[in-house]
Amino acid sequence: MNNIFVYIELENGAVADVSLELLTKGRELADELGVKLEAVVLGHGVAGIEKELAKYGADTVWVADDEIFAPFRTLPHTAVLCGLIRQEKPQIALFGATPVGRDFAPRVSSALHSGLTADCTQLVIGDHTDPKTKTDYKNLLYQIRPAFGGNIIATIVNPDHRPQMATVREGVMRKEYAAKAGAGEVKPIDWRPMVQDTDLAVKIIDRQIEERKINIKGAGVIVAGGYGMGSKENFKLVHELAEVLGAEVGASRAAVDAGFAEHARQVGQTGVTVRPKLYIACGISGQIQHTAGMDQSSMIISINTDAEAPICKIADFAITGDVNEVIPKMIKYYKQN
Ligand code: FAD
């Protein structure tokens, strides 16, 4: 049986969270299929990285360690990954839906004629019968993602081409050590024959990294405000409540579009996906495009004047009330306690 590849993205030498999330999911899929989970690392100075990857279940760690791979450059990465996939023939190859993954995964899939489902939010193994030919396919990767503006959840399968390739949104999958660590066996990639001179034609002369000032992705508590906050001025209540709770501030798209909050705070399908321990939704109706980015939160509290708003259906506690009355009371309470 062919194995599962997970491309390991590096951020300043550290493994990106999304890659650990993909290893966690990949381990689950590999166990179900009875195959091995293989991590692919292209970087520089990555000796010892296999120890961390093994904890998340990687059986094998393919490594190409050379300065041409760091910082990330599209063409050598594409060339080596294509070469390795041709050599090892995995049945599944997974990437984070990050700027890096979105850049080179489509190039890899195009070069291999394999197809790619972008921005998946769930991956499941299942069977499929072709409605025209009635051919049965066993153990395909169901690549699940919102489509048509989030109005439907599409399940996409790729019966005929290998590998089945997907990019997966950051933060939608759990990141957990495997119940049983993988072997983390390092296998060097014989990458030199895979890279042509033309792949190295683009040289990076200077690189400036702008620190993200707002980072709600990994926040444990998020207080999010919606259009129901009424104005930018009133949105300050959301910031105040967040401050007393030591939380980050999130926002719905309607709040961002109205200028109440910065785009980096937008939660949802076209914003960030979050899974905090506590998510307090203030004046947010809970349209599917918003809930797609937060419904995995451990606890959801909504504050809304409309008891029938969709957010109340997924909330653990739904407070029916005006944000202008409820939030100041909460701030007062938490300041005192
Ligand atoms: P509304 O839907 O206007 O809801 C406001 C809520 O506030 C209402 O429920 C109302 O009862 C309540 N309210 C009003 N006054 C008060 C008060 N004083 N006190 C308490 N409650 C009050 N949306 C996102 O959030 N994130 C996305 O990533 C996203 N991506 C999208 C992608 C596409 C392709 C499309 C088509 C849409 C997308 N949207 C996204 C928009 C989404 O469909 C909704 O329009 C948006 O989430 C609504 O934001 P809202 O809940 O703040 O506003």
Automatic annotation (TrEMBL):
**Which InterPro entries does the record associate with it?**
DHS-like_NAD/FAD-binding_dom, ETF_a/b_N, ETF_a/FixB, ETF_alpha_N, ETF_asu_C, Rossmann-like_a/b/a_fold
Q: Tell me which Gene Ontology terms the entry assigns under biological process.
A: fatty acid beta-oxidation using acyl-CoA dehydrogenase
- Taken from the record, one Pfam family name reads ETF
Q: Which cofactor does it need?
A: FAD
Q: What does the Swiss-Prot or TrEMBL cofactor note state?
A: Binds 1 FAD per dimer.
User: Keywords for this entry?
Assistant: Electron transport, FAD, Flavoprotein, Transport
List the GO molecular function terms: electron transfer activity; flavin adenine dinucleotide binding
Is Transcription among this UniProt entry's keywords?
no
- Superkingdom: Bacteria
Q: Which CDD domains match?
A: ETF_alpha (cd01715)
- UniProt binding sites for FAD: 252-253, 266-270, 283-290, 304
Record PANTHER family: ELECTRON TRANSFER FLAVOPROTEIN ALPHA, ELECTRON TRANSFER FLAVOPROTEIN SUBUNIT ALPHA, MITOCHONDRIAL
Give the protein family.
Answer: Belongs to the ETF alpha-subunit/FixB family.
Protein's UniProt name: Electron transfer flavoprotein subunit alpha
Q: What is the lineage of its organism?
A: Bacteria, Pseudomonadati, Bacteroidota, Bacteroidia, Bacteroidales
